[in-house]
Amino acid sequence: MIQLLKLAYRDLGRNRRRSFFSALALGMGLGLLLLMAAVVDGEYRGSMESTIRLESGHLQVRSASYDESKASLAWEDLVENPDGMAAQIATLPPVEVSTPRLFASGIVAVGEETDAVRVIGIDPSSAANAPFSDGLVFGDFLTADDREGVLLGLPLAERLSLQVGDKVTLLINTSNGEVDQQDFIVRGLYSTRTPSYDDRTVFLPLAKAQAITRTENHASAVLVLLHDRQQAEAVASALQGAGLQMVTWEKANELLLDTEEFAAAYMTFLYLIVLGITATVIVNTLVMAVFERTREIGILSAIGMRRRRIMAMFFAESGLLGIAGIAMGLVIGGLLVAYATIQGFYIGDMGVTGIMLGDTIYAHLTLEDTLTLTLLAFVITLLAALYPAWLAARMEPVDALRAGQ
Fold it and tell me: Which of 38, 93, 156, 393 could hold 365 in an S-S bridge, CB 3.0 to 4.6 Å?
């Protein structure tokens, strides 16, 4: 084996430039795949994290009859005494924070300009509001006793030409099916860097939201954040009760999970295409080597070298090219991923229905993806040697010697 590797190394050294660029082609292909895998995984992680912290939480406790798509405000579809329930849930060890939230449909009106929005009543003191309080761009955050203040997303405010201190009219559906209207003052503008969310979400203090929607002492759900999201099912089982439904983050984000599975299958197919293209460079290099060394192969066959050993010699050359190419690919891919992890790729508002995309995608490369792609690149490089090795091994000594003259 050592002798074969030495022979393969010497043969590759005959045309160092060609060997270098063949390995470089593989390296560039692997580097590109590492970047693609990191960006896809980063996009998924970012979307899931945004959805959990902004929308679904790790768990939501709702009335059994509540339909999220209809955002019903009927009392029978809401959770009664949500503050007490949230306080009780917060005592469980796996729970980081729990807080009631009220969801309603509404319209923001400024002069003749109107825009449909989603109104959310929140407990301003809850740590679950960190994405909004930390993302405050202008003005002040809401307070629990504020009866005239409203918090708007920065994109919505810019579209309606609103600033802190301006007055807006808010029309909101109520529990009896009517629409209530009231003027509010813009207390602050926030940005979570998730345009599809910031563009349509308006916040009110929970007490005020309950008053205007006539849902006193009721909420749409109790949102729960956990220390470990893998404990969601266990906590849901512990909270089961009559007239309640537990919606875990997995159930709430089925579309995103299904999209991720589809993307994983699609990316695997794409990986094979990219590596297949780079493998043709390896095939071309080894085929050229076969024709350049026809006489040498004939001599080796004539002095007794078996066909399988001739094939092994070309597999060894392919293996060395693969190792060199993988080393280059890890360096190239590492640099690309490092840049994408730190700087990210700005995509702006590319929101997809049911999926929350931030305005910037940051790469995230896992050890599993790195090992999988590295092994896949090496295996395909070895497979690329099949045809050149077979071509060399099938040569008859006499014909090879004559062709080499």
Answer: 38
